[in-house]
Every structure is written in C-alpha cells, then in structure tokens.
Specification:
- By secondary structure, this protein is mainly beta.
- It has 2 helices and 15 strands.
- The strands form 4 sheets. The chain has a 6-stranded antiparallel sheet with strand order 1-2-11-7-13-5, with no helix packed on it. A 5-stranded antiparallel sheet has the order 10-8-12-6-14, with no helix packed on it. The chain has a two-stranded antiparallel ribbon with strand order 3-4.
C-alpha cells in the first residue's frame, strides 16, 4: 500500500497494491495495522455507497460539524470521479485551499480526508459508484455544505458540459458567508 501526503498535508492519497492475472486482480483496500504504522489511527464506524448515473454530477462540498465530525476514506468502485478536499479549519495556514485527484475503478486510488475538511466529487464517467468509510455516524443535524463553484476556493473542476446538482448543493453558502465550526490546532 503506497501512502503519500498531498499539498494539504493531512489529506492523504492511498494507492493499494494490486495483484493481477488473466482473471482480474486482488487488492487489499483497507488495513488498519498498515495505516496505524503510517500515523493514521482512525476508527471507521460506517461504510457508505453512492451511485451517480450521469457524467458531470457534483456532490459537495459536504462536511459534518462537531460533535459528529467525520474523517472519510473515499474510493471509486466503478467508473471515475474527481475527488476534492477543502481545508475549512479556522486559522489554518491552508484555510480555503483545496486538492483534487482522479479516483477510478481502474487506478484503485483512495483519498483520506480528515475531519475539518469539506469533501466533494464530480463524476467523470457514467454510473460511477463511490464507496467510502466514515469515522462517525451520519448525524443530519450537523450536516453542512459549501458552494462547489465558490470563486474564493477556485476548484478547477474538469467539467465538460452542464453540471448536475442537488437543490441543497446549488444553494450552499460561499466560504465568505460561512462560520466554520472547525479550528486548526496545529499539525502533529
């Protein structure tokens, strides 16, 4: 399992090793011991699975606020997505900055997004399935979102047509109008 830091140090790109032959491949996609040996000690409590049928579907930028803040370990089980994390921790030196990576069934990469970061993705292929682990249970009363196209954040989405959004995501606030519930406490 290859583990590398991104430009936003706490957001981590993980690439499981694949072992393949004429039948297909095998990959160990989660190993708590390996992650702990690399300083990643999270207790995942729930797995989620989402299907987006159309290319250009954007979900996000979402988060859950404390006391139910969630870290996420995101992968794409079918198709391909452009997966994004945005630092929303007040006083963080990288507040409002983002990283994005293509995650696909073909490349097998995963993105670890800690609590204190908003998460979103755009589908790059039809019928893309996203499978992700979270570190706290779903708590709708703590849900939050930011605008996917906020110019202050400046995400370079690989959009090639019309975007498909939920009403909730279309009406999400801009970063400038957002009072973050997360506080940066310094890097470990």
């Amino acid at each position: 399992m290859k583990i590398e830091n991104t430009e936003l140090r706490q957001v981590i790109l993980i690439e499981p090793q694949r072992f393949g032959d004429q039948r297909g491949f095998f990959a160990e996609i989660y190993n708590r011991k390996t992650l702990c040996e690399n300083g990643i000690n999270l207790d995942f409590v729930q797995d989620n699975h989402s299907l987006s049928s159309q290319v250009g579907t954007v979900r996000g930028l979402h988060f859950q606020a404390p006391p139910h803040a969630q870290a996420k370990l995101v992968r794409c089980g079918r198709g391909a997505i452009f997966d994004v994390a945005v630092d929303i921790r007040r006083a963080s030196p990288t507040f409002g900055q983002w990283v994005g990576y293509e995650l696909s069934a073909e490349n097998g990469r995963q993105l670890l997004i800690p609590a204190g970061f908003a998460h979103g993705f755009m589908t790059l292929e039809p019928d893309s399935e996203i499978v992700y682990k979270v570190s706290d249970y779903y708590a709708p009363e703590t849900e939050g979102a930011l605008r996917w196209d906020d110019p202050a954040i400046g995400i370079k989405w690989p959009l090639k047509g019309d975007v498909i959004l939920s009403a909730k995501d279309a009406d999400a606030p801009l970063l400038a109008d957002f009072e973050t519930p997360f506080v940066w406490e310094g890097e470990p």
